[in-house]
Amino acid sequence: xxxxxxxxxxAINKLSSALFQGGNYIFxxxxxxxxxxxxxxxxxxxxxxxxxxxxxxxxxxAALQDEQLSTAEMEHRIKLLQEDNELQRLHKQxxxxxxxxxxxxxxxxxxxxxxxxxxxxxxxVALKNEMWSVKPLSDGQSNRVTFNLTPEIIHQIxxxxxxxxxxxxxxxPNKMSEKEFWTKYSRAxxxxxTKNVVAAAAEAAEDEELAVFLKQDDMLTNEARRKIRRVDPxxxxxxxxxxxxxxxxxxxxxxxxxxxxxxxxxxxYRRYFSQDLNQHxxxxxxxxxxxxxxxxxxxxxxxxxxxxxxxxxxxxxxxNLEKDLSHRISRVAxxxxxxxxxxxxxxxxCIKDPRDYFDSQQANALKPLGxxxxxxxxxKFNVSSVxxxxxxxxxxxxxxxxxLSEPITDPEVAFKVLSGLTQNIxxxxxxxxxxxxxxxxxxxxxxxxxxxxHHWTSIQELLKHFWSSYPITTKYLYTKVxxxxxxxxxVYPKLQEIKESVQSDFRHQVSLLVQPMLQAxxxxxxxxxxxxxxxxxxxxxxxxxxx
Amino acid sequence: MYLxxxxxxxxxxxxxxxxxxxxxxxxxxxxxxxINTSLSFSKFISNVLAFLNSILLLNQLNxxxxxxxxxxxxxxxxxxxxxQNHNQKGESLLQKLEEFVDKDESLCRDDSVDGPGFSLxxxxxxxxxxxxxxxxxxxxxxxxxxxxxxHGSPDGPGQYVAIMNAIFSAQRSMVPIDSCIIGAQHSAFxxxxxxxxxxxxxxxxxxxxxxxxLTTVFATDLHSRSFLQLPKPVGVDFRAACFCHKNTIDMGxxxxxxxxxxxxxxxxxSTCGSxxxxxxxxxxxxxxxxRKTSVDN
Lengths: 547, 297
Hints:
heterodimer; A: 547 residues; B: alpha/beta; 14% strand
């Protein structure tokens, strides 16, 4: 499936830049999913290329390239839409309705899309740690020894032995076939396993290609030398429990090196176990460097060769490394006593008096309660504390003397109060529900409530895209804003409809609810109009403007 | 919506209508001196005394505690559960009140004060809550507490944080704070307090009939409130005000560091000093949207 999609995307990318100057094209697809995806792109590409000049042709191509949707992602999106009704409604309204593109719709919902990806296991399979994976199976009867080489093993061989890799690239398929190559390699391995260095030297002298496998790997030694030069001298080499040399000589591995002194001519054919072990360990710890399918040996070899070359190039070009290293050394191994005082640049903390803030909040909160003035007037004059306290004391003693008055309240006043309270309570009860936390929405019929809430979320979505498109710098944003504006202007009559569909006693509440939505839309339109005006004023100055 | 929504079956847990009423009376002398109405302090106190008596009559186990909110200090001036001669309640309250006023005067450092001044509401709220906590820990059977603030002085902005802390702690302990405003202007703090703790906020229109208001609305115990209709405010306006002009705004600019709100573009935040990024060279930069609905959902 994936391979089917990839050519289509490549095709469209190639098409997009050269193509849309005319002509009709017919695309054939294997499945509806493919067709839908391609339809999106083609529609988008047509929209872009219909009006742009050359300057913006890169952007749509880039945008198309970003849209590499695999079927898995498409399925994931469909699943998300199925799970969330609200999201589906919005999607249907905007994307299918042509107001927003698919990309724009999902651009703000990256979190949702990412969530699923995390469920897939992100573990990568590492290289095997077996060193002697190429074990010959010897047939007890005949003299034949068989080696089984799987692509995995081949990958490991190429990773650990760069000489073999290089030989492969050089010899196959020019000098010998792959089978011959591996036969020779296996022969070399067999010779090594017999630990007969002399025999190895003899055979190497005869067969040039075999010699490559039998000799020590020059590339490896070069690499090792390079690495040594780059070792960080501040590395802490303190021995720990794993470096136990006392109780387990050679870490429990058999000593393989023979103690006989050989002629110098045989030296190159000697294999050192410790070298092999170190190289193997280094490769395994590095992990999978290339991510190529293991079927094709040649491509694996090439890919590995490429990465090695890239590494080498990086090292060479990175001349700063030595400087950085010396800097780091001086930093890490510094002697504290000899360091000067260090000034940490910190911005001074400046927090305003919170009282200023709360003053404003108070004025704000009191506004809806309406003006005071229920017969209580405040006289602002300067009172001395003595006087104030004195009068208070007087009043208290007055009560003590006179006691409670009889009746405590004038009955007419009491009656007025009672009826006033009753009226207040009964009027607010039907309008606002029983508790201040109950909302009007709950008292509306369900359809109306859902409609209102849906309008609210869709207005938010529209406004989100609208405001994020400013300031308008490209044609694409301009068309997007126009699209959004048209969609927004269609909301007004819908809201009006809702208002009229509600019963008359709720109408006021509903209009209160709807008001902030209308305000938000009005603000957006005001901004749009102002922007258009400014543009038309400026277009005299900039004849080569984006429009 | 607030953090601890009162569970719907709360009122089924304690079917009793025994209540512990903490009354916080405003004894700020500058406030009482500055108002010029039918309600003098003496009339106020007599209304309150009658009200306290009626509370104690409603149920034998009812308790009343009165805390005076002064200008410089706060103190308990009456506790009905303290053993004393039952006929002398009013006397002892007034006596203690006088002593409190004397003490408050002695603590006074200002020679004169402009206008009504601020009373220490945060202090008395805290004292009330401490007393309530003590009652909670006294045993499994205790009356249900609530707080009634008879407040008239304007809100002291310096006490905002302390009052909000008290409000949240009352909310946590499920203690409603009722507010009866006897002053000239509404109190934003108490409005919030009553809203958050699901108490009642009322500013009486006719202060002559204060007693009637008190007995109709504020004498209701918590159990009865589940089926009684009580006056409710229209709703709290949570919209913010801009820091530069103190105007309420619906859309504005927000500093991403300290969240201060401005109604127009500034180069630098005046609260935290962080420099705002350059506006786009073209016409208008995108203002951040900030919306709050005035009807709570």
